[in-house]
Design a protein that fits this description.
Blueprint: E1 2-7, E2 12-19, E3 22-30, H1 32-35, H2 43-64, E4 74-80, H3 84-101, E5 105-109, H4 110-116, H5 126-129, E6 132-137, E7 142-149, E8 152-158, H6 164-174, H7 181-190, H8 217-228, H9 234-263, E9 267-271, H10 278-291, E10 294-296, H11 308-320
Parallel strand pairs: 1-4, 4-5, 6-9, 9-10
Antiparallel strand pairs: 1-2, 2-3, 6-7, 7-8
Helix pairs in contact: 2-3, 4-11, 6-7, 6-8, 6-9, 7-9, 8-9, 9-10
């Protein structure tokens, strides 16, 4: 089966071609440079960028895979969650290609795609991993799921305010470091060479062991107030970045540990853009070794928004029940 995946949930215009679970091509065109001056994604700019580039991105993905529209058996497109205007561009384009080529089109949940991006390398399959705890740590989402099978992803924890990646972006903006904030804050944290770490708050960790929700808004505010009264040196920025990153990773690690105990499963899959963070990956590996948990992480090229994860999940859904999720 040849599947064309389309992803336009936020500011990346992405397309991928997959054949029976193997990724033949994956193209991503990002509008991040247009949002940088605003310190965050501007929905109107994102949707207009998708309109301008979706055709060429899909064309290049097909060319990379040496396929044409007539070769496509299925179109998988992100239909939720995401920015309404961005999603509309992707789904409208998918339906247009579907109508023109008489090709079935299936809608895919963006968040579930991130979780299953852990299995895109072909070494393991989610069928072998079920049941497992699935976590999405990204710019728009920080959520925990008890994943029992492809059709049963039960939400067991989520952020009450800012997502982890959003907090990275906002802290970078407070410190005047630029956008996107994740890579910049991580690099600054690596440059910190002191031991006087700032004790930033770790929200919701003192709650009961069954409490699996997150909150990062207070942490962001604590950084803002600390920065206002600091010396505002470059060294101080590095210290703040290190201390902030430690606070985020501590919370994520603790909540995931609780989720594993709560569900009683011994497998963990973590996806999303923030999983590019080296400290987080290291801590998750240490957690898995300590607790004898089988850990699945996506390759770094699949951590951010991409269409390969959408094509993969769409293909699996279609094989389960071809009519269930057709758009």
């Amino acid at each position: 089966m040849v599947t064309l995946g389309i992803e336009t949930s936020c500011d990346e215009t992405a397309a991928a071609v997959m054949v029976d679970g193997k990724v033949l091509s994956s193209r991503v065109s990002s509008s991040v440079h247009l949002h940088a001056q605003y310190g965050g994604v501007v929905p109107e700019i994102a949707s207009r960028y998708h309109l301008e580039y979706i055709f060429s991105v899909c064309k290049k993905a097909l060319e990379d895979a040496k396929k044409r529209v007539k070769d496509i058996d299925l179109i998988a497109v992100t239909d939720s969650p995401g920015l309404p205007g961005s999603l509309l561009v992707g789904t409208a384009f998918a339906k247009a290609v579907s109508f023109a080529g008489n090709i079935p089109v299936i809608g895919v949940n963006h968040v579930f795609g991130h979780i299953l991006s852990c299995f895109l390398d072909g070494k393991d399959t989610e069928e072998q991993a079920f049941p497992f705890v699935g976590a999405v740590i990204s710019g728009g989402h920080t959520s925990l799921y008890h994943c029992k099978n492809l059709e049963d992803f039960a939400l067991i924890g989520r952020t009450k305010d800012d997502a982890a990646g959003e907090a990275f972006d906002k802290v970078a903006k407070i410190l005047g470091l630029g956008y996107p904030g994740g890579p910049i804050v991580e690099k600054r944290a690596e440059a910190f060479d002191g031991d006087d770490v700032i004790s930033f708050p770790r929200a919701l960790l003192k709650s009961s062991a069954d409490h699996l929700d997150f909150s990062f808004s207070g942490l962001k505010t604590a950084v803002m107030y600390y920065w206002r009264s600091s010396s505002k040196t470059e060294k101080e920025k590095n210290k703040i970045c290190f201390s902030f990153q430690e606070a985020v990773v501590d919370v994520v690690e603790k909540k995931i540990s609780r989720a594993l105990k709560h569900t009683g499963v011994k497998r963990l899959a973590v996806g999303g853009g923030v999983v590019n963070n080296g400290v987080l990956r290291k801590r998750l590996r240490a957690l898995s070794l300590k607790n004898k948990i089988e850990l699945y992480l996506p390759k770094k090229k699949y951590c951010g928004d991409n269409a390969a994860m959408i094509a993969s999940l769409g293909e699996k859904y279609y094989k389960l029940d071809g009519k269930k999720a057709l758009l």
